[in-house]
Amino acid sequence: MPGEHILIVDDERAIQTTLRGVLEDEGYRVTAVGSGEQALARLQDDTPDIIFLDIWMPGIDGLDTLVNVLAEMKRDTRRFARRQRTWLRGVPGVEWMTPEPLEALVLRVKRFLEDAPD
After folding, report:
1. What are 33-63's pLDDT values in tens digits?
2. Whole-prediction pTM
3. 5-115: which CATH topology?
């Protein structure tokens, strides 16, 4: 559903730029940040529909960032309720993604948002 918000968290500017370009071309609103710390600060102001989270980053890595995001989801269930889905080992709101062609990534984003409860 175009217009939905996607947050990209990756310390590599080239990945941010590529993902942003592809997703904006599909009509999504995209924000990109370069660290786990920036992502957590961003979540205080906005609730994205999808977060693309790099695992290997300096500072707070992707896994620690994920733990913090899930803790925030648990604390503020009303704000995150629409986005909670169970896909990876019973963890709400998490889908494990590996590198894949950009066309497949866009299709996965569309399916994720179509399946999300209102």
Report:
1. 999 999 999 988 888 888 888 888 999 988 8
2. 0.75
3. Rossmann fold (3.40.50)
